[in-house]
């Protein structure tokens, strides 16, 4: 069963980040592959240990959801809309947060689906299963949209 959706920031001090990386992703489905490659390269440098595969899977799901559900309809994923989605990876001593920023103000909503043979609709269930916690928050100030984040405990200190 899916845990309740948490609205808010990950429970970590932003000033204590030991490493951070981010990349802009275009509004096309090939961006999921680009996000996975960026995440793999970053995690190798940070030595994410046993959580490597979990983090890569969750990043894929969050980016896919952003491309599929959070882009304005007039752009669509076939268009070359610039930097509509941004992936952020942040490392604390024994925690890692991946955040995906998109232009939508809509809350991410898990789908109710009893059909486990369906080809889509399970992304947030996978995020919930593989991340230690996850949630979302609206962007503040002049920034439009939201960030959906997932946090992982790491065995290897930074």
Automatic annotation (TrEMBL):
UniProt keyword Transcription regulation, yes or no: no
Gene3D superfamilies: Histidine kinase-like ATPase, C-terminal domain
Histidine kinase/HSP90-like ATPase domain segment(s): 25-137
GO MF assignments: ATP binding; protein serine/threonine kinase activity
Alphabetical list of Pfam families matching this protein: HATPase_c_2 (PF13581)
Alphabetic keyword roster: ATP-binding, Kinase, Nucleotide-binding, Serine/threonine-protein kinase, Transferase
Matches recorded under PANTHER family: ANTI-SIGMA-F FACTOR RSBW (PTHR35526:SF3), ANTI-SIGMA-F FACTOR RSBW-RELATED (PTHR35526)
Name used for this protein in its record: ATP-binding protein
Organism: Streptomyces misionensis
């Amino acid at each position: 069963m899916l845990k309740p959706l948490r609205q808010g920031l990950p429970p970590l001090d932003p000033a204590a980040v030991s490493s951070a990386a981010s990349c802009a992703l275009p509004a096309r489905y090939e961006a999921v592959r680009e996000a996975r490659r960026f995440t793999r390269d970053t995690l190798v440098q940070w030595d994410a240990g046993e959580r490597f595969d979990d983090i890569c899977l969750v990043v894929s799901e969050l980016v896919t959801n952003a491309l599929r559900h959070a882009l304005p309809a007039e752009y669509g994923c076939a268009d070359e809309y610039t930097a509509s989605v941004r992936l952020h990876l942040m490392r604390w001593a024994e925690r890692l947060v991946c955040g995906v920023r998109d232009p939508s103000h809509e809350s991410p909503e898990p789908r109710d689906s009893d059909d486990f043979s369906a080809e889509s609709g399970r992304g947030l269930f996978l995020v919930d299963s593989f991340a230690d916690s996850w949630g979302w928050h609206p962007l503040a100030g002049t920034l439009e949209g939201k960030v959906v984040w997932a946090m992982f405990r790491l065995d290897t200190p930074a």
